[in-house]
Structure formats: structure tokens, C-alpha cells
Amino acid sequence: MFALLSMCCAAGDAGVLPVQWDMARLSQPPATYPAEGFAAEGVRALFYDALPFENKPTRVFAWMGIPDHPEGERVPGMVLVHGGGGTAYDEWVRIWNARGYAAIAMDLDGTVPQGEHGSRPTHEFSGPTSFGGVTPMDGAKEDFWAYHAVADIALAHSLLASQAGVDPGRIGLTGISWGGFLTHIAAAVDTRFQFAIPVYGCGFINEISWKPVFDAMPPEKAGEWIRLWDPSQYVAAITIPTLWVNAASDPHYYLGVYGRTYLRAGGTKTLSVQPGLGHSHQDGWAPKEIYAYADSKFKGGEPLIRIVAEAEEGDTAMAIFENGTPVKADLVWTRDISDWSACAWELVPATVQDNRVAVELPGDCAAYFINLTDSRGLITSTVCRSRK
């Protein structure tokens, strides 16, 4: 018999969140102001009130769009969280609008969407401009960029939910890279979201591409940063459904550590590891699994295949799944994990019988996962496991 690992519940301790946000305050729709001089097809440019930064009032720039819909009906919504080097993307809002979702995308770096990263202008009411920075905590945590970013996400949720024609009970959350990192935290903090889709981001970032930065900090400062802000400290408290999307060889969020974060997370969760996926905003909002997952939650769409248990016994790996039958199942494996961002992945067909898939592991397998592909070409994955 296989010792099955259930994928339905958290492996970590939910406990008390290390940082607290005033959700009673953040659940109130913020005041909005025209964003003069900004215009894009089909969407509205605005600023909304946010939390004080260093005792000064702040506002956040955002694009918001609501699709056409029959009078008297309400549409679902999405809050869109950019990553490092990003900003509020009007294109991203339109992508969701075209699928029948209201959406809001905000700039979380105190800037407006003009120019390129590093040269985007701030504005009169800018908050912190250190988005994605990994530096020692030297001030109040309420002035840290991650604190403001999570608050801004919750306020964007409140603003979108307050719009005429939007169903406040059908709003989801998705974020890319650092936005995925923040999505993990926001999903634990703002339980009004009905689901979350983090793309790339994960916890334990002191062990992945940011390790040299943490190693250069005094140990007590590095430990404090991880305790306060790392998603590993939050994901066990997630109770909403989540879809996790990552590249097989992501240059920042390595698959081995990513899997540890996934296993720690609470709630009903689904994983999709995409061979060949690049790392960018455009790549991050491209996977079809994201939109199929949202439609399955809000529009009665066909759900993704979901792996409910997985195991390894001897040289055989297996998984149990539900929600359909894969038309293809593959073992995705590599011989070398000395550099997770440069793994050469190989595919071996796996056998599907009833609601199970099983496959023999090659003798020189260093790490592997199983991908199940449905008739729409949508991928569901097991957690990546190391063997060496």
C-alpha cells in the first residue's frame, strides 16, 4: 500500500498571523479621485485613498474596468497584483473584462504607469516606493512596503466590490511574481476573497534567489524579515481555494522550495507547473489554467483536474485525482538539481487507471513531478519532489 499524502489541508500551523491588518477599516470602500491625464481604452484611471505612510496621507493609482452586462445582473471581479518592475496594467484589466469579469489593477510602488521601471514618476500622495525590496527592518512595520501593498490589495477589493454591477460575493485575487508573493499573504489576511491564484511567488525566499541578500544581513535582521513578511508564515492560515501556477525552471521561485510552501498552505489547493513558461507579467497572465479555474468558481465552468493525494513507494510515484480524466499523463523529471533555474526536464508517459496515475522513476532521477493534462490542454501537477 502507498502512504498517501493528502493535498487538501495545511501542513503548517495556522496560528496567529505575524502582522495584523485592520480589516474592519480596509473593508470600507476608499474615496476615489480622477487620474487626470491618464486614459486607456475601455478602462477608468483613478486614485484611491490608502493608509498613511510616515504619518502622511497616501493614494494609489489604479485602472478599473467593468464589462458590459445585462441590466440588473452583476458580474464577478478580479483584483490584479503586479510583480517586481511592474505597475498597474490596463491590458491586464481588459483581458479579464473580455472574459466577463470586472477587474482592478493598481500600482503598488507609489508610481504611475508612465515610462519604464526605474524611471516611472511618483505622485503627490505616493506611499512607499521600495516595492520588492529586501532590506533590514529599521522602521515601523506599518511603513514597510509589504504592509502597504497588502492593505492596498484589500482596499482595491473593497473598491471593486462597491461598484454598481459587480457582485461583491464573487471576487477573486491573482498576482504575478512579487504579486504572487503578496497574493499568499493577502489570501490569508483578506478572507473576503473567494479564491486566489498566485503565479510564481512562494515562501522561504531566504533560500532561493534572494539568499545572498539575506546572508549579508545580520542574522537577527534576516530572521525578523522572514518572520514578518515571508509567505511561509502566512499560507497555513489560508482557507479559500487556491490555484498555484509556476514554471518548471523559474529563475526566482525554485520549484523545490515552491513545493514546500504549497504543502504548508491551507485550503483546497491545485497546482499547475508549466514546462517552458517564461517569467514576466505577460507570461504570468497567459496560462489558460488561470481563466478556466476562475470560470469554474464563478461561472459554472468545467473544473481543472485536481490531485487529492500523491505518494512515492520504492521507485514508483503515483497520484489520485478527481474532476475528470486526463488525456495525457507524464512524469516530468531531471537528473540534476544543482541549479533549479536551469534544470533539464525530461518526460516519461505515465499510466492512468480509474482515478489513479502511476509511473516508475528512472534510477538517476534527482527530482520529479507528474503532470496531468485534460482534453482542453490544461495542466494539473503533483508537488515537485527531490530524491537526492
Task: Set down the secondary structure blueprint.
Layout: E1 5-6, H1 23-26, E2 32-34, E3 44-53, E4 56-65, E5 75-81, H2 90-98, E6 102-106, H3 145-161, E7 166-176, H4 178-189, E8 196-199, H5 211-216, H6 219-229, E9 242-247, H7 255-264, E10 269-274, H8 281-284, H9 288-298, E11 306-313, E12 316-322, E13 328-334, E14 346-349, E15 351-353, E16 356-360, E17 367-373, E18 379-381, E19 385-386
Helix pairs in contact: 3-4
CATH homologous superfamily grouping of the largest domain: Alpha/Beta hydrolase fold, catalytic domain
H-E string: EHEEEEHEHEHEHHEHEHHEEEEEEEEE
Rg over alpha carbons: 21 Å
CATH topology of the largest domain: Rossmann fold
Classification by helices and strands: alpha+beta
For the record, the CATH architecture of the largest domain stands as 3-Layer(aba) Sandwich
* Percent range of helical residues: 10-25%
What oligomerization state is this entry in?
single chain
Instruction: Let me know the largest β-sheet.
Output: 9 strands, mixed
What's the CATH first level of the largest domain? Alpha Beta
| Sheet with the most strands: spatial strand order | 2-3-4-6-5-7-8-9-10
State the separation between the terminal residues, measured CA to CA.
Answer: 23 Å
Description:
The protein is an alpha+beta fold. It folds into 2 domains: 5-304, Alpha/Beta hydrolase fold, catalytic domain (Rossmann fold, 3-Layer(aba) Sandwich), CATH 3.40.50; 323-386, no CATH class. It contains 9 helices and 19 strands. It has helices spanning 23-26, 90-98, 145-161, 178-189, 211-216, 219-229, 255-264, 281-284, 288-298; strands at 5-6, 32-34, 44-53, 56-65, 75-81, 102-106, 166-176, 196-199, 242-247, 269-274, 306-313, 316-322, 328-334, 346-349, 351-353, 356-360, 367-373, 379-381, 385-386. Helix 3 packs across helix 4 (178-189). The longest helix is centred in the middle third of the chain and has 17 residues, at 145-161. The protein is globular, with a radius of gyration of 21 Å.
